[in-house]
């Protein structure tokens, strides 16, 4: 029988990279990051979205730097963010002309906390290595780390063609898919070696190898982790929209994280038109929290409901409690140290309600269909009260607020915001 992994393996890199005060790798916890989808030249929109992503929990935010106007906007964005108390590290995403933009806009080069370089489009033919080296030298000059981010949608075609040709001469050739995976891994490692040859220390380099299929991502990162101890950024590119993107990203990254592979992650969700960009941050946090790697917000346990719970009261209360906790966390994180470890239970009937509520720090067992209209509340495993009447939900919310203040605060009554 195959032995199940009950604890993550210990591969995580010992090489730590400082990204604007946030440590990636080196034994630090897995870092959550995200990326804006605004035009960076639109300073107001970009500042607003970076601030929203950071408030949602993104510890690093990447922005597109694709032309002179966006490069010129970067230092202004940094200044505006700091003015409103947002000090999240900004990463510049460069393609094609990154070397030129960084050279022409030294204020942009200084304002960014890290540069993302794509070795597949940093330059072509004889210009590729020279322009890649130009960016590395500018990063060294400004003492900035880099992420060398390979993407199979923009893979170095010369490298891929060479490996395909070599594969055809092999007596037992690999499939085209396997060769492509090998090209991705080699592109990342060879680029990192070149960066180190021109003076960039390993403690300034993060690698990523983005693909859009779950099995490919697992295979590529497993191979990358065997061959290098660089800090690794995980992400399933083009994961898609809604539940498809969430499931695909979680399926791939949970396996890698359990194997100790990955130091920072991004969930790349395609938002619905006008959708909330912060959703990808929430999903990344929930993935790490569900797997037990980090704790971001209090856990709300709620039963799925059945024929015994035809009332929607427990569903509405669970949703309200969860939304209140997440909305208040940016303030509570500083005001109530440790509040992210809180466990709340909102149960819908007598079958598992009392037992589950006892396991939580504070829990309520609402009456199911046909049950006595009373809701016992358990605090720290002991029955503390029985709520009745039309205000059960509001009364329980008050009890949760009081519990948070008593346990994590000064003991004064908390007013949820």
Task: Write up what this structure looks like.
This protein is an alpha/beta fold. The chain has 13 helices and 15 strands. Helix 7 crosses helix 8.
Protein traits:
417 residues, alpha/beta, eight-stranded parallel barrel, five-stranded mixed sheet, 13 helices, 15 strands, 44% helix, disordered C terminus
In short:
With 417 residues, this protein is an alpha/beta fold.
Topology:
Elements: E1 16-19, E2 22-25, E3 31-35, H1 43-56, E4 60-64, H2 68-83, E5 90-94, H3 98-104, H4 106-111, E6 114-117, H5 126-141, E7 146-151, H6 157-169, H7 176-197, E8 205-210, H8 214-227, E9 231-234, H9 242-258, E10 264-265, H10 279-290, E11 299-302, H11 313-335, E12 343-347, H12 353-359, E13 362-365, E14 374-379, E15 382-388, H13 392-408
Parallel strand pairs: 3-4, 3-10, 4-5, 5-6, 6-7, 7-8, 8-9, 9-10, 11-12, 12-13
Antiparallel strand pairs: 1-2, 13-14, 14-15
Helix pairs in contact: 1-2, 3-5, 6-7, 7-8, 8-9
Shape: elongated
**Major sheet attributes:** 8 strands, parallel, barrel
Could you tell me the radius of gyration in angstroms?
25 Å
Strand order of the largest sheet: 3-4-5-6-7-8-9-10
List low-pLDDT spans.
413-417
| Ends apart, CA distance between termini | 51 Å
The total count of strands amounts to 15
């Amino acid at each position: 029988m195959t032995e199940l992994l009950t604890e993550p393996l210990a591969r995580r890199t010992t090489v730590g990279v400082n990204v604007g005060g946030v440590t990636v790798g080196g034994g630090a916890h897995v870092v959550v990051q995200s990326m804006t989808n605004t035009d960076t030249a639109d300073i107001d929109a970009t500042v607003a979205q970076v601030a929203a992503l950071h408030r949602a929990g993104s510890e690093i935010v990447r922005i597109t730097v694709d032309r002179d106007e966006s490069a010129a906007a970067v230092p202004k964005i940094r200044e505006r963010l700091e003015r409103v108390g947002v000090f999240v590290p900004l990463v510049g995403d460069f393609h094609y002309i990154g070397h030129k933009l960084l050279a022409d806009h030294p204020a942009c080069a200084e304002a960014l906390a890290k540069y993302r370089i794509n070795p597949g489009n940093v330059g072509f033919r004889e210009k590729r290595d020279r322009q890649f080296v130009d960016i590395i030298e500018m990063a060294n000059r400004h003492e900035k780390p880099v992420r060398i981010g390979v993407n199979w949608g923009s893979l170095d075609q010369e490298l891929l063609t060479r490996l395909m040709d070599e594969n055809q001469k092999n007596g037992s050739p690999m499939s085209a898919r396997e060769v492509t995976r090998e090209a991705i891994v080699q592109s990342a490692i060879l680029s990192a070696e070149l960066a180190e040859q021109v003076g960039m220390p390993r403690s300034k380099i993060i690698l990523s190898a983005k693909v859009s299929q779950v099995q490919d991502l697992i295979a590529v990162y497993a191979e990358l982790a065997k061959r290098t101890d660089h800090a690794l950024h995980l992400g399933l590119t083009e994961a898609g929209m809604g539940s498809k993107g969430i499931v695909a990203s979680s399926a791939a990254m949970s396996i890698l994280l359990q194997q100790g592979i990955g130091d920072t992650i991004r969930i790349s969700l395609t938002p619905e038109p006008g959708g909330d960009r912060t959703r990808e941050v929430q999903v990344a946090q929930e993935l790490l929290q569900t797997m037990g790697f980090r704790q971001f917000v209090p856990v709300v346990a709620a039963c799925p409901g059945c024929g015994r719970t035809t009332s929607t009261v427990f569903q509405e209360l669970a949703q309200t409690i969860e939304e209140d906790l997440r909305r208040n966390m940016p303030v509570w994180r500083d005001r109530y140290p440790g509040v992210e470890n809180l466990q709340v239970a909102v149960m819908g009937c007598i079958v598992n309600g009392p037992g589950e509520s006892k396991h939580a720090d504070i829990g309520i067992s609402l009456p199911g269909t046909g049950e006595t209209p009373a809701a016992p509340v358990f605090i720290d495993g002991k029955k503390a009260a029985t709520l009745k009447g039309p205000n059960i939900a509001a009364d329980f919310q008050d009890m949760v607020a009081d519990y948070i203040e008593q346990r994590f605060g000064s003991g004064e009554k908390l007013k949820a915001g």
